[in-house]
Write a structure and sequence with these properties.
The complex is a heterodimer of chains A (about 280) and B (about 725). Chain A has 12 helices and no strands. Chain A has about 280 residues and is an all-alpha fold. Chain A is globular and about 70 Å long. In chain B, strands 1, 2, 3, 6, 11 and 12 form a 6-stranded mixed sheet that branches. Chain B has a 4-stranded mixed sheet with strand order 8-9-7-10, with helices on both faces. In chain B, helix 7 crosses helix 8 and helix 24 packs across helix 26. The two termini of chain B are about 30 Å apart. Classes of the chains: A mainly alpha (about 280), B alpha/beta (about 725). Chains A and B meet through helix 1, helix 3, helix 4, helix 5 and helix 6 of A and helix 1, helix 3, helix 9, helix 17 and helix 19 of B.
Chain lengths: ~280, ~725
């Protein structure tokens, strides 16, 4: 595509810079709290740190357990494993159901589509205690497996919805041609549909990953020992009844968000590749 | 990802997911102590273990926000600890629910702590530490502790100055004038209180006088809208000469050589009008016994004993609940002295109902809506509503029969439908097989817990006793029986606010998200990847923290929003004083939090969209707006519609922002349905049944919405290819 006039290019860049500045504005306070020595809470007109110190960052990263092992590293690994497992589980379950909803009519299909929206409306206030009872009965309390199962299944309705939306945009000729060539349903899906669905799978997986990455209430209720904690639980541990260690909380929050931004940055390539593939086939 | 790679990742994941082994420990203890207190406790645990290798003590830290919920979930099912530490005011409800066991009174406990925990001959737990409000002062400006309320006012007046030019405003005193906890010392000091001995009653001459005093302070010398971190900050920065706060502020003030003020602590002054000391509430950090056992009892008594108390006072810098402990820090000694006049907070569930109505009265007073007497009278009315007797039990038999009939009818209907559609279903057997894993998982771990939880709505329960009340809760809520339809507590008014909230948010999310995605798709945009990654930051940072920061941005005196407005000559706005501005503050926060989701979804959809059509439109001379309306949006619609539907449901239930930013201010008018339900469950006396009924009604509304959407999206699309592709063909 040709490049538009220069003033237009400048205007687009200007708008992006403004939008990014407004977006980053509140983040500056978090940065200021993270590098200020002592515990400085929110509540100043300007995000100016009171000096620069790495004490909070060091305190957060350097936590060691009673056994002297590197606790933060272990908790980071917990978070990564739980979130990646959630993304894989949620997206895997959702891929087949999303495809079924997109391509085939069957009795009860409308009801299932409605159910998907409804699950998003289940109030968390009502769910927590029964979920605890259930996991207790299944012997999955205090385990990250239980957490992954809950996160993964919670992510399924949204992921199904999302993937169905994507599959709907794929032309039917694509799978019909594959079927005419003698490929079965599964082969068509695995060899034709999934490869060109990488952008949608990536975005859907990212959503599930994020849901697990930031979840606190269930993780804190279901995980007992500090060595099993995920990072949101660690972060919330800096908040007490009457106040918080704002410095460590902020430093931790920045650490927690870095992988997400990095992940997004990396996934963009995937998205662009998907675009190229899609436009060739379409 | 190839199957082999997937398999490898999965196996690594499974290996890492193996359970964490907890060392065999005989006595377990849960607590939420942080910093030095935590370190002191862990040292004590190690000391105990060294002396009693056959009964080691294991202290486990739990974040404060999760501790109470975790105890209430785990202890009744035998998964809880032997001991746990929590504030004493929960003692009454927890003992009634059988979560905690009585213990022997602790000899040598501070009188206020012993009184707080006394339960006849026995005690509700072992007192460890105690907290009450006291007066912090900057010694450079207020050298001597004010002896009485007149001296306090004089000193505070002297150091109060309005902002002038570049010099920021100075205040004589920082205190939370709209918190029921912070105002209690004055109620007691003026001879009043929240209860007349028999029931909660606010409108009394003593309380009117106390509120008159607090209001005069607030108008003259107190920094406005202060709470939590802001209060600490205003004193630490030297903007307030004095502050009323608890021992928790000690650890948050900077040292003098790091730029902090030279401060000292003293008990609250005597009220001049009555000659009584201002008496704050005392909160006792209590060690509760959750599971019977001789070792647990021995640990409890030892942790509340002399050796432990001395260590906690020295190493943990704690104000311990024990007599005769020496403090090397004068501030700790002052807090210990402040406990002499403190009033132990009552432990019954009814007492806990007073917080919300009293806080509401204080906020109305501070906004100038009415005088002390009128707001207290209103608080009496409010508390009567909250403390109304539970609904009468209803015979469950007809309900059981009705439910069984309905279930049978539903099954029959389903079976008939299935029978009629049997050939169709057989033909579509593969579709069910493809849906099965997802349906099984969601059914077990999402739908089943929901159904169990929903059943609670038909009971009146505080977690222990269960009374079947049929549809009473639903009728109470729907008919707004206990308050008018226009009250902020009314379902219908809250629903109107919720709908406005959802609609306004969706418009902002979609407009911002689509606009930014359109800007970001142009291949000639420089640093595209950087912009994209930075713009998802609101989504990446935990929203608890960002919501707190946004609340700070809207602070009247110290917030950046008012500072920016001031640069344009706009006078300071009290954002949380009026519905419109408080709503706008919530909206700004949630728009910021939510636009990245729409942006990412749109970006994904745009990738799948061929640009030839658009280029053709350009060649045909279409303007930018025409292209957007007739080419881009129609193509985006199929991908965006599901996101909009889900986004609307999430926003409808977006509890965090409301709770953390406006907190329902003013007077609960900005509360949405889900934050109301939350308040009924947790801050209005644990009316779990009522809260569940609220949750079910919210759900019911979304069912209606979902049905409409199900028709729109579930029925239509199956027939053919989506419109975007047809256009192209």
């Amino acid at each position: 595509m040709r490049t538009p006039p220069r003033w237009n290019v400048a205007l687009v860049h200007l708008m992006l810079v403004i939008a990014t500045a407004v977006t980053l504005f509140p983040v500056l306070w978090i940065l200021a709290m993270a590098v200020s020595p002592g515990s400085v809470g929110p509540g100043s007109a300007l995000p100016v740190p009171q000096g620069v110190s790495w004490e909070h960052l060091r305190a957060v990263v350097g936590t060691r357990g009673a056994d002297g092992a590197w606790l933060f590293g272990r908790q980071l690994a917990n978070s990564l494993v739980v979130s990646v497992a959630t993304a894989v589980l949620g997206t895997t379950l959702a891929a087949t159901s999303g495809w079924a909803l997109s391509r085939w009519t069957f009795p009860g299909r409308g009801g299932i589509a409605g159910l998907i929206v409804l699950t998003q409306a289940f109030p968390a206030v009502v769910m927590a205690v029964p979920l605890y009872l259930l996991l207790d009965a299944l012997g999955l309390l205090d385990s990250r497996t239980g957490l992954v199962l809950v996160y993964g299944t919670t992510a399924v309705p949204f992921s199904t919805w999302n993937l169905k939306g994507w599959f709907d945009t794929l032309p039917r000729e694509l799978d019909e041609a594959a079927m005419l060539d003698g490929a079965g349903r599964w082969t068509t899906f695995w060899r034709v549909i999934l490869p060109i669905s990488r952008p949608a799978l990536a975005v859907t997986g990212l959503f599930s990953f994020l849901g697990a990455w930031n979840e606190f209430v269930l993780a804190a209720t279901l995980l007992g020992d500090e060595r099993a904690w995920t990072l949101p639980v660690v972060l919330q541990g800096h908040v007490g009844e009457h106040g918080a260690n704002w410095g460590e909380f902020s430093a931790g929050a920045i650490l927690v968000s870095v992988p997400v931004v990095a992940l997004f940055f990396l996934l963009q390539k995937q998205l662009v590749e998907g675009l190229a593939a899609g436009s060739v086939k379409g | 990802m190839s199957a082999a790679r997937l398999g490898r990742c999965l196996s690594i994941g499974i290996a890492l997911l193996a359970p964490v082994r907890v060392d065999a420990a005989d006595v377990t203890l849960w607590h939420a102590w942080r910093g030095e207190e935590r370190a002191a406790l862990e040292t004590l645990a190690a000391r105990w273990t060294a002396a009693h290798p056959d009964a080691p003590l294991r202290a486990t830290f739990v974040p404060y926000d999760a501790l109470a919920g975790k105890i209430e979930a785990a202890v009744p099912r035998g998964n809880g600890p032997d001991l746990f530490v929590y504030a004493h005011e929960k003692a009454g409800t927890w003992a009634a629910r059988g979560l905690t066991l009585p213990v022997a009174p602790t000899p040598g406990a501070l009188p206020v702590a012993a009184a707080a925990l006394a339960d006849g001959e026995r005690a509700r737990g072992w007192p460890l530490a105690a907290k009450a409000l006291a007066l912090y002062r900057d010694r450079a400006r207020v050298p001597d502790a004010p002896a009485d309320t007149d001296a306090l006012r004089t000193a505070a007046r002297r150091w109060t100055r309005p902002a002038s030019g570049t010099a920021p405003a100075q205040w004589g005193l920082a205190m939370e004038t709209t918190s029921a906890y912070a105002v209690a010392p004055w109620l007691h000091g003026f001879g009043g209180g929240v209860s007349d001995g028999a029931r909660l009653r606010f409108r009394r001459p003593e309380n009117v006088a106390a509120l008159g005093f607090v209001h005069a302070l607030a108008r003259e010398v107190v920094a406005p809208e202060l709470s939590g971190a802001m209060l600490v900050r205003s004193f630490d920065d030297g903007r307030a000469a004095m502050a009323i706060s608890g021992p928790w502020m000690l650890g948050e003030l900077r040292a003098r050589d790091a730029g902090g003020v030279d401060w000292a602590v003293s008990p609250l002054p005597v009220v001049r009008a009555t000659g009584r000391p201002a008496a704050p509430w005392a909160t006792v950090e209590t060690l509760f016994l959750a599971r019977e056992g001789p070792d647990a009892r021995a640990v409890g008594a030892w942790l509340a004993g002399e050796e432990s108390a001395a260590w906690r006072a020295r190493a943990g810098r704690q104000v311990v609940a024990r007599q005769g402990v020496g403090y090397d820090d004068p501030a700790l000694a002052a807090f210990s002295a402040a406990l002499e006049h403190a009033v132990p907070m009552p432990v019954d569930a009814v007492f806990a109902l007073h917080w919300e109505p009293l806080a509401r009265a204080l906020r109305r007073l501070s906004r100038g809506d009415a005088g002390p007497e009128a707001v207290l009278a209103q608080a009496d009315t409010d508390v009567a509503v909250l403390a109304r007797p539970p609904p009468a039990p209803v015979a469950p038999a007809p309900w059981l029969a009705g439910t069984a009939l309905l279930a049978a009818a539903g099954l029959a209907y389903g079976a008939r439908g299935a029978w009629r559609a049997r050939s169709e279903m057989a033909r579509a057997a593969h579709a069910y097989a493809w849906m099965a894993p997802a349906l099984a998982g969601v059914g077990l771990l999402v739908v089943l817990p929901f159904l169990v939880g929903a059943a609670v709505a038909f009971f009146e329960t505080d977690g222990t006793s269960w009374t079947f009340v049929g549809a009473t809760h639903f009728l109470d809520i729907l008919l707004a029986r206990d308050w008018g339809l226009a009250s902020p507590l009314s379902l219908w008014r809250t629903l109107a606010v919720t709908l406005l909230w959802t609609a306004a948010n969706l418009v902002l999310h979609v407009v911002l998200g689509v606009a930014l995605a359109l800007l970001l798709r142009e291949p000639w945009v420089r640093l595209r990847g950087v912009f994209r990654a930075l713009l998802v930051l609101p989504w990446a940072i935990p929203s608890y923290l960002t919501a707190m920061v946004w609340k700070g941005l809207f602070h009247r005196e110290m917030g950046a929003v008012n500072a920016i407005l001031a640069a344009f000559g706009v006078p300071a706005v009290g954002w949380f004083d009026r519905f419109a501005t408080a709503f706008a503050a919530n909206l700004a926060t949630n728009a910021w939090l939510g636009f990245p989701f729409m942006m990412v979804t749109t970006l994904g959809a745009l990738q799948a969209m061929p640009r030839e059509l658009e280029e053709a439109a350009v060649l045909d001379g279409a303007t930018g707006a025409q292209r957007l309306r007739h080419v881009i949006l129609p193509q985006l619609a199929p991908a965006l519609l599901p996101a909009i539907v889900l986004g609307s449901v999430w926003t409808f239930n977006a509890f965090n922002v409301i709770y953390l930013v406006s907190g329902g201010e003013p007077d609960g008018t900005t509360d949405i349905l889900v934050s109301q339900a939350y308040r009924w469950a947790f801050s209005r006396g644990h009316r779990y049944g009522y809260a569940a009924a609220y949750g079910m009604l919210i759900f019911g509304m979304l069912v209606l919405y979902g049905r409409g959407v199900g028709r729109l999206l579930g029925g239509g699309v199956a027939g053919g290819a989506p419109p975007a592709r047809e256009d192209k063909a």
